[in-house]
Design a protein that fits this description.
Helix content of chain B: over 70%
CATH topology of the largest domain in chain B: Four Helix Bundle (Hemerythrin (Met), subunit A)
Strand content of chain A: under 5%
CATH class of the largest domain in chain B: Mainly Alpha
Number of helices of chain A: 13
Number of strands of chain A: 4
Number of domains of chain A: 1
Helix content of chain A: 55-70%
Low-confidence stretches of chain A: none
Structural class of chain B: mainly alpha
Number of helices of chain B: 6
Low-confidence stretches of chain B: none
Structural class of chain A: mainly alpha
Oligomer: heterodimer
CATH superfamily of the largest domain in chain B: NADH-ubiquinone/plastoquinone oxidoreductase chain 6, subunit NuoJ
Mean pLDDT of chain B: 82
Strand content of chain B: under 5%
Strand order of the largest sheet of chain A: 1-2
């Protein structure tokens, strides 16, 4: 096994760019969330710090950094600190398998815009998502507060329940793609129209997409499924005892998750970095410019999905906990199974 | 010593020490966390063997789902070191004897087996395509029987859960 220095430098650069990019987008997602809420409720939203309140995320971050750090006396100290760290870690880890753009072919070699092209890309995302609940659980338990504990138990059972439906909805899609590698899935959705039908998976698996989207709301703890932070029942939820930047990490990890999962949805169902007439564009511009256009396409799709998440949050009221469980176990899982059977039948008899 | 050996020994030491941590730590929550770390080390070994599918499934199923449920139960029961009940002497002796017997059996098995050296040639057996083909051709009968076993366990759990709700209602 040989270590290739140039390879390591390239990957480290790529990882840092992706990390900084997702942090920046997550920061401005907090701003966008407040602006969207303001527009939908006929208010102005943040408008003091900078033009249109654009410096508001910086001000919030600084405020959180300078606040006093309080670790409750009767808490389990190590786990109390581990909680937000895990939440942050699992939030950024998913970005490793997302293909951000096509390979750039130069005379010196091929530069890949994906950190790791592993052949089980989707399963890697599932693994990281299933670990994401530890941050919330450990933090809530270590706080030694009944409300936090209740909230973390809600978060865990919600996450486990909706992971099942999420996995089943993806199985149907994987039956059509025949590959678990995200790069291959994106390349199969090349362009927009091919051989008399759309290439994007959204048009091949509309029901699967719908189930996946609902489950994504639940996994992200976003309204209408934000039961773990239900203020009217649990005060603040699992981060009640947290202060300063540890609280900031929890809130921030949520927005990073929002961005990354929007990117994953765009990659799986909306063609990733592919766009209509991309072959014509690729033929007329330089490879680097083409790669930039592709990355911007993916980011645009991701931002549209983020905005959709926000519209839903400020439109629908919160579910009750038993309704949430009933929806997950009695509606979404059977629906996903039916979708799987239909997909199998179509592959067997119609497409062949 | 190449990178491969360094990673192998690191993972081995991590797996063994975390496994010891599971049984030695007094706080059950710490035990669960050590067990999760052990699963990660074992998944690392799977990746070294080029069995990526096994590695990630180990993490999804054990670390991601089963251990969450373990943690769930422990948190709800609020087991702490000071509330741990003192076990009676008979149970302690029985535990020591049964554990010792298991150790003897393992030792006897290890003594007769030959220890092969570390083989670094990569195989493709653990990749998802080959694994799926093997499971659905050569081992299809045991595979289906085990799925029936899981189904019966699931139905059993539902039946047990149902009775309890009817009593309270």
């Amino acid at each position: 096994m040989q270590l290739d220095i140039a390879f390591i430098i390239e990957k480290v650069l790529l990882i840092s760019v992706i990390l900084l990019g997702s942090l920046g987008i997550a920061m401005y997602a907090t701003w966008a969330e407040r602006k969207v809420a303001a527009v939908m409720q006929d208010r102005r939203g943040p408008n003091r710090a900078g033009f249109m309140g654009l410096l508001q995320p910086m001000a919030d971050g600084l405020k959180l950094f300078f606040k006093e750090e309080i670790i409750p006396d009767r808490s389990t100290r190590f786990l109390f600190i581990l909680g937000p760290a895990l939440a942050m870690l699992t939030a950024v880890m998913t970005s490793a398998v997302v293909p951000w753009g096509p390979d750039i072919v130069t005379e010196n070699g091929v530069i890949s815009l994906q950190v790791a092209d592993i052949n089980i890309g989707i399963l890697f995302i599932f693994g990281v998502v299933s670990l994401g609940v530890y941050g919330v659980m450990l933090g809530g338990w270590a706080s030694n507060n009944k409300f936090s504990l209740l909230s973390s138990i809600r978060a865990a059972s919600q996450a486990i329940s909706y992971e099942l439906a999420m996995g089943l909805s993806l199985v149907a899609m994987l039956m059509m793609t025949g590959s678990l590698s995200l790069r291959e899935i994106v390349e199969q959705q090349h362009g927009f129209w091919d051989a008399g039908y759309f290439t994007w998976n959204f048009f091949k698996q509309p029901l699967g997409f719908f189930i996946f989207l609902v489950c994504a709301f639940a996994e992200l703890n976003r309204a209408p499924f934000d039961l773990p932070e239900c203020e009217s029942e649990l005060n603040m939820g699992y981060h009640q005892e947290y202060s300063s930047m540890k609280l900031g990490f929890y809130l921030f990890a949520e927005y990073i998750n929002l961005f990354i999962s929007s990117t994953v949805i765009a990659t799986l169902f909306f063609g990733g970095y592919n766009f209509p007439f991309m072959d014509e564009v690729a033929a007329s511009v330089s490879p680097i410019l083409f790669a930039i256009i592709c990355v911007l396409t993916l980011l645009t799709k991701a931002i549209c999905i983020i905005l959709f998440f926000m519209f839903i949050r400020w439109t629908l009221p919160r579910f009750r906990y038993d309704q949430l469980m009933r929806l997950g176990w009695k509606s979404l899982i059977p629906l996903a199974l039916v979708n799987m059977v239909i997909t199998g039948a179509v592959i067997l008899w119609v497409i062949k | 010593m190449g990178v491969y050996e360094i990673i192998f020994w690191f993972l081995t030491v991590m797996a063994l020490s975390c496994a010891l941590g599971v049984i030695l730590s007094r706080n059950p929550v710490n035990s669960v966390l050590f067990l999760i770390a052990t699963f990660f080390a074992i998944s690392g070994h799977y990746i070294l063997l080029n069995a990526q599918f096994l590695a990630i499934v180990n993490i999804i199923v054990y670390a991601g789902a089963i251990m969450v449920l373990f943690l769930f139960v422990i948190m709800l029961m609020n087991l702490n070191a000071d509330t741990e009940p003192q076990k009676n002497r008979l149970v302690q002796i029985a535990g020591a004897i049964s554990g010792g017997t298991l150790l003897l059996v393992i030792l006897a098995a290890l003594r007769t087996s030959t220890i092969t050296s570390l083989d670094q040639t990569s195989t493709d057996i653990g990749l998802i395509k080959n694994l799926g083909k093997t499971l659905f051709t050569q081992f299809v009968l045991p595979f289906e029987i085990s799925s029936v076993l899981f189904l019966s366990a699931m139905i059993g759990a539902v039946v047990i859960g149902r009775k309890e709700t009817e009593k309270t209602a």
